[in-house]
Design a protein that fits this description.
4 helices, alpha+beta, three-stranded mixed β-sheet, 120 residues, globular
């Protein structure tokens, strides 16, 4: 269906930007469509160096109310809980993603959503 296709397309595009990973947060039980991590200490070789974590969410039509632009209560709650767990939640709404026709446009879109500094 649409949600699975959308999430797979999103994972493919993120893999071109940085890293990809389907992930379930053990503390909350929430599924994260794409987890992007980047070490904060530039040039660090320490395995336990702190990392910034982005939870990239493929927000299809079911994540919104009937107006298709207002996030549902469950979507807002998930975003809030993930934020409290240290994730930067990056929603990718279907109406922004759908017009992006090629890999380059998707890559640029995701780089912008992630702050534009993820490729170094």
């Amino acid at each position: 269906g649409f949600p699975g296709f959308f999430a797979r397309a999103l994972r493919r595009a993120v893999s071109e930007v940085e890293i990809k990973e389907e992930f379930r947060d053990a503390r909350s039980g929430h599924s994260i469509d794409v987890l992007v991590r980047r070490r904060l200490a530039a040039g660090s070789t320490t395995v336990d160096a702190p990392a910034r974590k982005w939870a990239v969410e493929a927000d299809g039509p079911t994540h919104f109310l009937r107006d298709r632009r207002t996030p549902s209560g469950s979507t807002l709650l998930k975003r809030k809980q993930l934020g409290q767990l240290g994730y930067t939640v990056v929603p990718v709404p279907f109406w922004e993603w759908a017009p992006l026709r090629d890999g380059e446009a998707k890559r640029r879109y995701l780089e912008d959503k992630l702050g534009g500094d993820e490729k170094q």
